[in-house]
Design brief:
Layout: H1 37-47, H2 53-66, H3 79-88, H4 94-107, H5 111-117, H6 119-126, H7 132-149, H8 158-162, H9 169-180, H10 189-197, H11 206-216, H12 222-235
Helix pairs in contact: 3-9, 5-7, 6-7, 10-11, 10-12
Protein name: Endonuclease III
Cofactor: [4Fe-4S] cluster
InterPro entries: DNA_glycosylase (IPR011257), Endonuclease3_FeS-loop_motif (IPR003651), Endouclease-III_FeS-bd_BS (IPR004035), HhH-GPD_domain (IPR003265), HhH_base_excis_C (IPR023170), HhH_motif (IPR000445), Nth (IPR005759)
Length: about 260
């Protein structure tokens, strides 16, 4: 019988040298963060002088000369379809709303026709618009309220328009201005940006900017003022890269970062 010798492994004892601990180094105090460009711009904007009445008149004279009869870009047939279009335009582009409403308004251009169409079929027309389910519900509800409380007509006061489902202050201002010729100032993201950036009517809220613009702009320009400012913000005073080189009012603008 073959005997196989057994090997018993011997575990080597490993000794580790003690590593001296590093002396704690006191942390350096963090340097105060540099002011952000936007914050600096806001501070410098507050420090600039306000527009003079003659400068404001000059600015809107230039807008009027360049575009005597500005038009809103939301397509509509009457005060009701304008109201519906503005309600649908919340968090959506005018172009996107127009694409959906061209066919819709062919079949439903009155509150009664909109009710007859119904919420489900209305959704089919506007499903390409953001929040279309909620908006369809609001349009049907406001149509019903127009019929039950206003004789099927769009009311002519801000408070009454704001009482309609889906309609806020901006909606009321647009309808009052475009449908009934009232001197109102509808403040959307474009008008809010232009009012603050140029220093024409700085404000922390749309309402502050609205009231500031209404106070500053001469009555002779108020009929078209909100259209001029919207178009200026949409095509010239852009959010990310303002086109200062082609701006009609670049010499009057108070923005400290303008490129001309």
């Amino acid at each position: 019988m073959l005997i196989v010798p057994q090997y018993i492994p011997i575990m080597a004892k490993i000794t580790r040298k003690a590593v001296p601990r590093k002396t704690a180094v006191p942390k350096k105090k963090a340097k105060p963060a540099a002011a952000k460009p936007r914050a600096a711009a806001k501070k410098s904007l507050k420090a600039t002088k306000l527009w003079t009445p003659s400068e404001i008149h000059e600015a809107f004279s230039r807008f009027r000369k360049a575009n005597p009869e500005p038009k809103g870009e939301l397509e509509h047939l009457n005060p009701f379809t304008l109201l519906v279009a503005v309600v649908l335009s919340a968090q959506a582009t005018d172009a996107g709303v127009n694409k959906a409403t061209r066919e819709l308004f062919e079949v439903a251009d009155t509150p009664q026709k909109m009710l007859d169409l119904g919420e489900e079929r209305l959704r089919d027309y506007i499903r390409t618009i953001g929040l279309y389910r909620t908006k369809a519900k609001n349009v049907i509800a406001l149509s019903a309220k127009l019929l039950s409380e206003f004789g099927g007509e769009v009311p002519r006061t801000r408070a009454e328009i704001e009482s309609l489902p889906g309609a806020g202050r901006k909606t009321a201002n647009v309808v009052l201005n475009m449908a009934f010729g009232e001197h109102t100032m509808a403040v959307d993201t474009h008008v809010f940006r232009v009012g603050n950036r140029t220093g024409l009517a700085p404000g922390k809220t749309p309402l502050e900017v609205e009231l500031g613009l209404e106070k500053a702009i001469p009555s002779e320009f108020m009929q078209h003022a909100h259209h001029w400012l919207i178009l200026h913000g949409r095509y010239t005073c852009l959010a990310r890269r303002p086109r200062c080189e082609v701006c009609l009012i670049n010499d009057l603008c108070r923005w400290p970062e303008k490129t001309v």
